[in-house]
Amino acid sequence: MHALLIDGLNLIRRVHAGVPGTEDPTGHSEAVEEACVASLRRALRRHQPSHALCAMEYEGPSWRGTLFPDYKKNRRPMPDDLRSALGQIVSRFLAQGVGTVSVPGFEADDLIASIAQKVAEAGGRATVLSTDKSFCQLISNSVSVYDHFAAQDRDTEYVRQRFGVEPERLADLFALAGDSSLHIPGARGIGLRTAAKLLDDYGDLESVLAAVGEIPGSRGRKIQDAKEAVMLAQRLVTLRSDVNVGTNLSQFRCSAK
Predict the structure, then answer these.
(1) pTM of the predicted model, to two decimals?
(2) CATH architecture of 2-158+239-249
(3) Pick from 204, 223, 203, 205: which is nearest to 213 by CA?
(4) How many whole angstroms separate alpha carbon 84 and alpha carbon 136?
(5) Exposure string for 41-56, b = 16+ CB within 10 A, e = fewer
(6) The CATH number fitting domain 166-237, selected from 3.30.365.10, 3.40.50.300, 2.40.240.50, 1.10.150.20
(7) What is the pLDDT of residues 47-98, one digit of tens each?
């Protein structure tokens, strides 16, 4: 089994941003729709999956927004024209043999993480199609991440070079350093490089926090002062793998046309 797990809004919004605007709103929406379908087809040809699905955000609050009201506070809202076109784009995806899934209260990231784990447990392979760095924490022998727009495999070596840690330590890294794209502060004044060094020295976030009194200089004080924020950040940046998607993967057997 090889499952292609598509981060729906990541794909669609990137395509929408790349289609030049026109004076004809209908014509622009149709151009975006066609470009999305073409992008999907290209992904299916590239990966040749046995199963494929598109995970979408559910309209309404997520558990992260409930836990931390400032989550994604500065994220630009979806353009109105794209919002009105989503239903048709999803229908066109289904016509290509790729269905969609969404679950109230959860983001597409959590759905993909949960499905990827089930695929791995069944002895299969999963490829996550997204430019979102959060998915890199899932990278393993069974789960890979592919940047569709850069035509780049984001593998373990990519994570090491880009972030200075192993994939399984990414959530700890972002918890310490924060993630400005999600408006999660972490420990203020602790950047990615410092966070990576601390994780290299102590092993994981739990060990860093346990040894905070031993960390010299301002770094130790900054982490001590932000301890609760860091622990909250870790919850927020860690992808959930326990979501009941409410469907069987066999329903998403690839029937691309």
Answers:
(1) 0.92
(2) 3-Layer(aba) Sandwich (3.40)
(3) 223
(4) 31
(5) eebbeebebebbbbbb
(6) 1.10.150.20
(7) 999 999 999 988 888 999 999 999 998 888 888 889 889 999 999 999 999 9
